[in-house]
Amino acid sequence: MYSIKTEVCGNPDYGQNPNRPPYGVRVKTIKAKTYAELLDKVREWQSDNIIGGGNWMNPTLMSDSEIVGYMSYNGKIWSDQSITPSTMQIHIRELSNV
Q1: Phi-psi category of 54—alpha, beta or left, where left has phi over 0 and alpha has psi -120 to 50?
Q2: Measuring CA to CA, which residue among 82, 10, 69, 84 is closest to residue 38?
Q3: Given pLDDT bands bounded at 50, 70 and 90, which one contains residue 94?
C-alpha cells in the first residue's frame, strides 16, 4: 500500500501566504495499492484543489510504513525532499499480474 500526506504552501507569485496552504485546501493522506493508482489520485487532488508546482512541497512517499522517497510535482520520486544536483531519482517498479 502506497501513501502520501499532501504537503502544500501558498505560492507568493499569486499573492498567497507561503507559510500556509492556499485558502480552502485541506491536507489529505492519499492511499492506493499501486504507485500508478496513487499518482492518478494525486493528480486528481492537485486538479481539484488548483495546486501548481509553486504550491507543492515534495511530500514523503510511503510504502506500508517505510519511506520510499519524496514526490515532486511531476510525480517523480527523489531520495531527498530538497532536490539538488546530487539528489538521486528513485524508480518505482511494480509487478504486473498480466
Answers
A1: alpha
A2: 69
A3: low
